[in-house]
């Protein structure tokens, strides 16, 4: 017989649930307060499923959930919540709850189905199934406790139609985790579409997200659907959401609040059912405090908050990650020695998994075809030092290259020594060339430091993306000259 525990301070709800599930053959125990709950002897009385109201007059439902899971970890928990506390219900899922349902129960059949699914062994929630989804998404879970806890929580919230905010340093795998969310959700058969909000201009991003009508602006030669329309029943991944302009943030807020939007140049209202997964390598809460990000949009996106640990905090997973990268590069017969792994694990990886992938790819590319064993001496780590302790990568100082300055100074001194005259126009031309050279070197250093992330490089140099592109184009012109 199935033992069901109901924890709800509303006696009418307890009576209703007791009657409903007793008729299905369950043995139902109803408690109306935390004091009644703590009188239960959980060491002798076991439950297969518990229905817990989050709001109790004398206790927080989350505390009861944690106490129950501590004594009976295999008991499935269904959280009962009002609409205004859905975010708290999602937090309950992270603490071990299996699912949640909103009160009042408008659909009794849905309630019965949820309970039956939780009790059914056919519900795909095994570690093997989660691992298969992770493999399909290209996600290496590894042995790290924090990472495994993150994946378990991510799998649970993937089943629910709620927005998700993923935060983590550059290169930790936020897009890969978003793909895992999509594959683990009921939307897995629909489209997964991603866009980097910091990689394109405001006007282009608006058109990309919402679409445009023919003639809406110069170059709009035909009607185009936006991503909210294309991914209407799927998942829309908004990467680097912190870089979205204030105008775009306002439009995103409206879509999330009303599920309605208009194409650029249109007055027709369209609807979308896209699930939004947003990602940021910045702390959005800090961005809100700094007035860089809208607070109301933050709360709309942050229904579920997931944070990916940096690679330096999960170094025990480096061998698994390296093996995955070796397989991905097609080098099935190549192995890394213990010394090679030790060298990789002694590095702090400021660029996280993206940097590790670059190092492994570079090492494999430079190795001899006959070499099947990679040693520590063959691994070339980044020339950029790991971030100083206590400072973020954006706080590091980029040093101006000394060689061009020293070379120019020596040339100028030599000219003064050899002649009483000097051509000022030539000197000014040299200064201009030196300016271009230093600008180019600084951009290249910034790109190396941010592992190719142009948005981060521009922010580090405190210049616009247009200026960064201009300097890079200048490099090409100088080379040809």
Describe, in plain words, how this protein is organized in 3D.
With 481 residues, the chain is α/β, with parallel strands linked by helices. It has 4 domains: 3-119, Rossmann fold (3-Layer(aba) Sandwich), CATH 3.40.50; 128-307, 3-Layer(aba) Sandwich (Rossmann fold); 311-378, Helicase, Ruva Protein, domain 3, CATH 1.10.8.60; 396-480, Arc Repressor Mutant, subunit A (Orthogonal Bundle), CATH 1.10.10. It has helices at 11-22, 34-38, 61-71, 86-94, 108-119, 127-137, 145-158, 174-184, 202-210, 227-230, 246-258, 284-289, 295-301, 318-328, 338-345, 352-366, 402-418, 424-449, 454-461, 465-480, and strands at residues 3-7, 27-31, 49-53, 55-56, 59-60, 76-81, 99-102, 164-167, 192-196, 211-212, 224-225, 235-239, 260-261, 270-271, 275-280, 304-307, 335-336, 373-374. The strands form 6 sheets. It has a 5-stranded parallel beta sheet with strand order 2-1-3-6-7, with helices on both faces. A hairpin with an 8-residue loop joins strand 13 and strand 14. The radius of gyration is 29 Å and the shape is globular. Residues 383-402 and 474-481 have low confidence and may be disordered.
What are the SSEs and their pairings?
Layout: E1 3-7, H1 11-22, E2 27-31, H2 34-38, E3 49-53, E4 55-56, E5 59-60, H3 61-71, E6 76-81, H4 86-94, E7 99-102, H5 108-119, H6 127-137, H7 145-158, E8 164-167, H8 174-184, E9 192-196, H9 202-210, E10 211-212, E11 224-225, H10 227-230, E12 235-239, H11 246-258, E13 260-261, E14 270-271, E15 275-280, H12 284-289, H13 295-301, E16 304-307, H14 318-328, E17 335-336, H15 338-345, H16 352-366, E18 373-374, H17 402-418, H18 424-449, H19 454-461, H20 465-480
Parallel strand pairs: 1-2, 1-3, 3-6, 6-7, 8-15, 8-16, 9-12, 12-15, 17-18
Antiparallel strand pairs: 4-5, 10-11, 13-14
Helix pairs in contact: 6-8, 7-8, 11-13, 14-16, 17-18, 18-19, 18-20
């Amino acid at each position: 017989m199935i033992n069901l525990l109901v924890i709800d301070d509303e006696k009418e709800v307890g009576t209703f649930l007791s009657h409903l599930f007793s008729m299905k053959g369950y043995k139902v125990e109803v408690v109306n307060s935390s004091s009644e709950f703590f009188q239960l002897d959980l060491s002798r009385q076991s439950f297969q499923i518990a229905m817990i109201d989050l709001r109790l007059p004398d206790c927080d439902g989350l505390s009861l959930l944690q106490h129950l899971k501590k004594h009976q970890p295999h008991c499935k928990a269904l959280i009962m919540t009002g609409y205004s506390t859905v975010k708290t219900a999602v937090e309950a899922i992270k603490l071990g709850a299996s699912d949640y349902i909103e009160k009042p129960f408008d659909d009794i059949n849905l309630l019965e189905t949820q309970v039956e699914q939780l009790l059914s062994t056919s519900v795909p929630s095994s570690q093997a199934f989660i691992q298969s989804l992770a493999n399909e998404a290209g996600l290496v879970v590894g042995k790290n406790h924090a990472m495994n806890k993150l994946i378990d929580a991510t799998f649970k919230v993937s089943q629910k139609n709620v927005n998700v905010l993923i935060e983590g340093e550059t290169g930790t795998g936020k897009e890969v985790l978003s793909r895992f969310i999509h594959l683990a959700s009921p939307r897995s058969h629909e489209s997964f579409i991603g866009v980097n909000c910091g990689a394109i201009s405001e006007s282009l991003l608006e058109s990309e997200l919402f679409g445009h009508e023919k003639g809406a602006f110069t170059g709009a030669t035909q009607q185009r659907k936006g991503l909210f329309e294309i991914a209407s029943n799927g998942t829309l991944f908004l990467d680097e959401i912190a870089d979205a302009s204030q105008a775009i943030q306002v439009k995103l807020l409206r879509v999330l609040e009303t599920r309605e939007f208009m194409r650029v140049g249109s007055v027709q209202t369209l609807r979308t059912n896209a699930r939004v997964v947003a990602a940021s390598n910045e702390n959005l809460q800090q961005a809100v405090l700094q007035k860089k990000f809208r607070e109301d949009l933050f709360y709309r996106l942050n229904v579920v908050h997931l944070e990916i640990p940096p690679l330096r905090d999960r170094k025990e997973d480096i061998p698994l990650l390296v093996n995955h990268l070796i397989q991905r590069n097609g080098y099935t017969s190549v192995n890394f020695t213990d010394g090679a792994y030790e060298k990789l694990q002694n590095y702090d990886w400021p660029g996280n998994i993206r940097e590790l992938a670059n190092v492994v790819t570079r090492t494999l590319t430079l190795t001899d075809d006959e070499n099947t064993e990679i040693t520590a001496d063959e691994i070339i780590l980044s020339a950029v030092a790991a971030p100083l302790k206590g400072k973020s990568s954006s706080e590091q100082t980029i040093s101006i290259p000394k060689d061009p300055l020293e070379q120019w100074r020596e040339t100028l001194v030599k000219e003064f020594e050899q002649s009483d005259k000097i051509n000022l126009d030539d000197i000014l031309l040299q200064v201009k060339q030196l300016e271009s050279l230093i600008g180019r070197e600084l951009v290249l250093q910034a790109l190396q430091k941010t592992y190719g992330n142009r948005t981060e490089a521009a922010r580090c140099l405190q210049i616009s993306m247009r200026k960064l592109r201009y300097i890079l184009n200048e490099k090409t012109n100088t080379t040809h000259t």
